[in-house]
Amino acid sequence: MPVNQKISKLPPSPSFSKRPESFDSDGENWSEAIDPMTEELNTMADEINATQGEINTSEANALAYRNKAEKWSEENQGIEVEPGKYSAKHHSLVSKEREDKARLWAESAKYAEVEPGEFSAKHYSLVVRDFVTGLWENPIFSSSVTSLAVSLGAKSLITDTGKNYAPDMWVLLISKSDTSVSIRGYVTTYNSGTGALDIVATSISGTGSASDWLISQIDPSSQISSGGGISAASLFIAQSM
After folding, report:
1. FRET pair for 99, CA 20 to 30 Å: which of 69, 120, 196, 204?
2. Which helix (H) or strand (E) segment is 127 a member of?
3. In the CATH scheme, what is the code of domain 140-240?
4. pLDDT in tens, 97-135
């Protein structure tokens, strides 16, 4: 609110140095001017007080705007500035997390899980490359009479000696008597002198156990279906053994 009230000037004040008749006249004029000036001063005081209130309100609003601006800029991740809306810092951190996650999905090392049971594009590229290279250079087939339960996890068996099974190579075990029973997994260790083979089973078909296994190196991207999912390599084994 602007201060519009003007204050009128007072007439000359009475003075004893003047003649008595002038003193009386100046005194009367002075007295008559005091009341209007008092009203003017009171009006101006009201305007000043109202203006000060507006100034205080503006200052409070400016402070609130500054605090809100700081929140829009710096509020921590996951904390709403307004319902469903977040700060620039939040979006920057979320973007960085997504960038880092995308890098993990693209570049994580072989067999390093990005999420439980999920691997990077680099992992699958390397696994397939190793499989194709190994299968091209030395396709591996063998058999085993070790009794194994059809279940997930680490397993040990005895198979043929002199094979080229190697760590991280993927293999498929299929029962000769029931080809719907199979175990898919990757090699952890192999002793070519004794035929001792250790694997980690990651998927299975069927139930129970078997001791008439046909074993083949497989494409690591292959899956076992509920019906057994026999690979072409495994069919070759079944026909030749």
Report:
1. 69
2. helix 121-137
3. 2.40.30
4. 888 888 888 888 888 888 888 888 888 888 777 766 665
How many Å apart are CA 68 and CA 65, to the nearest integer? 5
Q: Which of 90, 78, 82, 111 is nearest to 188 (CA)?
A: 111
Quote the CA–CA distance of 120 and 111 in Å, as a whole number: 8
* Whole-number Å distance between alpha carbons of 7 and 79: 55
Mean residue pLDDT of the chain comes to: 80
Hey, which of 12-16, 63-67, 75-79, 237-241 has the most confident mean pLDDT? Answer: 75-79
Residue 96's region, left for phi above 0, alpha for psi from -120 to 50, else beta, is: alpha
Give 192's contacts (C-beta < 8 A, 6+ positions apart).
161, 162, 163, 164, 165
What is the pTM for the complete model shown?
0.41
Cross-strand bridge partners of residue 186:
170, 200
Q: Is the dihedral of CA 114, 115, 116, 118 positive or negative?
A: negative
- Side by side, which strands form the sheet with 141-144? 141-144, 213-217, 170-175, 182-190, 196-205, 153-158
8 Å CB contact between 210 and 178:
yes
